[in-house]
Give the backbone structure.
Amino acid sequence: MRPRTSRERIGDALRATLYRASPLALVQYRYRRATGRWYNPRNTRTFDEKLLWLMLYWRHPLKSRCADKYAVRSYVEENGLSHLLSQLLGVYSSAEEIPFEELPDRFALKATHGCNFNIICADKRRLDTADAIRKLNGWLKVDISRLGAELHYAAIPPRIVCEEFLEGRPGTAPDDYKVYCFHGKAHCTMACTDRTDQGANYDFYDLAWSRKLPSSKGSLKGGRDVPKPVGYEEMIRAAEILAKPFPFVRVDFYSVNGRVVFGEMTFTPHGCIDTGYTDEAQAAMGQLIHLPDRLM
């Protein structure tokens, strides 16, 4: 984790102050900065607006369990899908507990309480262990809920999991497939391909993978055609089983040499404010969410 710039530290302090005032105040600030509009929780129509409402006002404890990269494993097992889990190599409360000398040549380290807190090690001989420990311990101190009002993260104990290394084409990260589920039914899938440190390509397909959907602004410009992954039908079946209790959740999978591997469950993609969606997608997916009664 690189050191925060002075501007980023000021921004973090402002977000923390707004969060203490109220999570809604922090959401208003973030939404205004991203869209130029004020967020009104009493008048939600778009996908992001309804996701923000669920983030603030539907605090089901199962969300925290399923967003926890370690605790979700038991939820997957309870639903009869343990065969989709990656191999777990260890769970640690601090980076100093990790027995690097005992780990295989390739592995993945992930903090359990947020997103993008990952170290993917393709060759242990080249790993700067001291730097990895510094990054991991830094991530363990971050409270994601105070940065974006993603309240379900506040209930997740910060830990580190070590999992097997997943490889796509030689020397590349595996493509992943993110199934958007509404009230327990899969609606569409976002293919995340050609991932690098600089980003990835994102393309949406309908449930049958028969046509590309005009959901991503970047995809419309890209002109790509992503083939349906091996095991796609198994991904959809598993996603709908796992998504059953929730008004919305995105269930992510990898396809690794024909093997389907569960990735994670995401309730607040992009912090619920994603300007990369087209207006058509915002409207269409917003209509699919029927807001439940508040659960605080």
In short: DSSP finds ten helices and ten strands in the chain. The mean pLDDT is 94. The two ends are 33 Å apart (CA to CA). The beta strands are 88-92, 107-111, 118-121, 160-164, 176-182, 185-196, 199-206, 212-213, 248-256, 259-266.
